[in-house]
From TrEMBL:
This is Alanine dehydrogenase. Keywords: NAD, Nucleotide-binding, Oxidoreductase. It comes from Barnesiella intestinihominis YIT 11860. One of its GO terms (cellular component) is plasma membrane. Belongs to the AlaDH/PNT family. The active site is at H96 (proton donor/acceptor), D270 (proton donor/acceptor). It catalyses: L-alanine + NAD(+) + H2O = pyruvate + NH4(+) + NADH + H(+).
């Protein structure tokens, strides 16, 4: 199969779809890999590192799309890429369709097969291609939240861990999945007073058994969240419904109960955000204020630590990429239920129920 690795063109997206080690594995299996010039530079992988393992370097993104049967990316295609995608081409990347109607309609019109990292799902309901970036995003959410609590950044001027005689910052993490627990662990490590919420009592019990002493668990409800907000300095929104639009768990009216300069970090922004006042931001302009509350809603948080993120992502995606290249997507998906669940759009048809539901469109089968 001919596999293409284009350069990511989303704002400050520094990751690349595959490392040289991943390319080496594909070439070993007899596949041809084309990498766009400079695609890996911001992750620490110069063109020469790809050429050494057998990749061919192409000058432009147009060249890569034109020749490739399968495109392996990191983030969803953006508008300049839409015309480059053709019928029958396989795209393997993060899509997050439920939060972007324009992208959904563009991919339907293209006739391409869209296989989404975020909905590849194992029998235990874990999401193996989302987990590594969730781990990065959760850790980064706390790191960025701590930064924007600083007064020069517009925050209330609180140190996460406090100092002797001064209380630490209070952190509320909504959602106790991979993102949420990663955020809570980093906040606890910085010395903050951390509360983590979830609807799953079994998950909260598990966390209660393994957590540091400065993490407390709390059942997630509107009442409980409202009660926490007046004394909370940093909120991390880490709610995920696979493939579906995130629910709004903090509404506009709740902001009035928070102290000015408090920080909201919405890691669910890829799926529409879990705060009513959330809108996507970028690494170049990461924050905005609503009612005196700082909102950090960067849609590609792991892109800031691209070297770590690219390595972690390729570790997870490579076995699936090799399957798809060796067998073709039809055979690979028919033999691997996890991969089949990654199919979102095929030949102009939405086949993933949560995406169809988000836009009131029919969900078809193949």
């Amino acid at each position: 199969m001919i596999v293409g690795i284009p350069k990511e063109i989303k704002n400050n997206e520094n990751r690349v779809g595959m490392t040289p080690a991943g390319v080496n594995e594909l070439v070993k299996h007899g596949h041809t890999v084309y990498v766009q010039k400079g695609a890996g530079e911001n992750s620490g992988f110069p063109d020469s590192s790809y050429e050494r393992v057998g990749a061919k370097i192409l000058a432009t993104i147009e060249d890569v799309y034109a020749i490739s049967e399968m495109i392996v990316k990191v983030k969803e295609p953006i508008a300049p890429e839409y015309p480059l995608i053709r019928k029958g081409q396989l795209l393997f990347t993060y899509f997050h369709f439920a939060s972007d109607r324009r992208l959904t309609e563009a991919m339907m019109s293209s006739g391409a097969t869209c296989l989404a990292y975020e909905t590849v799902e194992l029998k235990d309901h874990s999401l193996p291609l989302l987990i590594p970036m969730s781990e990065v995003a959760g850790r980064m959410a706390t790191q960025e939240g701590a930064r924007f609590l600083e007064r020069p950044q517009g925050g209330k001027g609180k140190l996460m861990g406090g100092v002797p005689g001064v209380k630490p910052a209070k952190v509320l993490v909504i959602g106790a999945g991979v993102v949420g627990y990663s955020a809570a662990r980093i906040a606890a490590g910085m010395g903050a007073d951390v509360t983590i919420t979830d609807l799953s009592l079994s998950r909260l019990r598990h966390i209660d058994e393994i957590k540091p002493a400065n993490i407390k668990t709390l059942y997630s409800s509107e009442f409980n969240i409202r009660a926490e907000l007046p004394t909370t300095d940093l909120v991390v929104g880490a709610v995920l419904i696979p493939g579906a639009k995130a629910p709004h768990l903090i509404t506009r009216d709740m902001l009035s109960t928070m102290e000015k300069g408090s920080v909201l970090v919405d890691v669910a922004i890829d799926q529409g955000g879990c705060f009513e006042t959330s809108r996507p931001t970028t690494h170049s302009e990461p924050v905005y204020e609503v009612d005196g509350i700082i909102h950090y809603c960067v849609a590609n948080i792991p892109g800031a630590v691209s070297a770590t993120s690219t390595l972690a992502l390729t570790n997870a995606t490579l076995p699936y990429v090799v399957q798809l290249a060796n067998k073709g997507w039809q055979k690979a998906c028919s033999e691997d239920e996890a991969l089949y669940k990654g199919l979102n759009i095929v030949d102009g048809k939405i086949i993933y129920p949560a995406v169809a539901e988000a836009f009131g469109l029919p969900c078809e089968t193949i």
